[in-house]
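Dear colleagues,

As part of the handover before I leave the project, I'm documenting each prediction I ran so the next person doesn't have to rerun anything. This entry is a single chain, and its sequence is reproduced below.
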Amino acid sequence: MQISDFTFTRHALERILDMQVDAETVRGALLGPEYVHPSPTYPHTDLYDYQDITLSVDRAMREVITVLWRWQEGWEADLARGQYHHRAVDAGKNLRRKTSSV
């Protein structure tokens, strides 16, 4: 599989820029994810966990739908920068902490 096998929604690209995720991290998440699992919310998508991010990918279309923080600390740091758009203030509250996971 190659990076060119995937497309990105406008929303996913906006999230990558907003979260300041570098291209190599996105490439690593798509081509060598640490963990891939079905989304509990959207049955047609898989979640690709890699380092500090999670990509939501449409399984059939190979389209990256959105980019999320993988750990609670990521959400907390992001929210500390200020609220915008429709981002929920409680986003990430049920995630594991990076420091307590192995």
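The CA atoms of residues 55 and 85 lie 20 Å apart. The two ends are 28 Å apart (CA to CA).

All the best with the project,
I.
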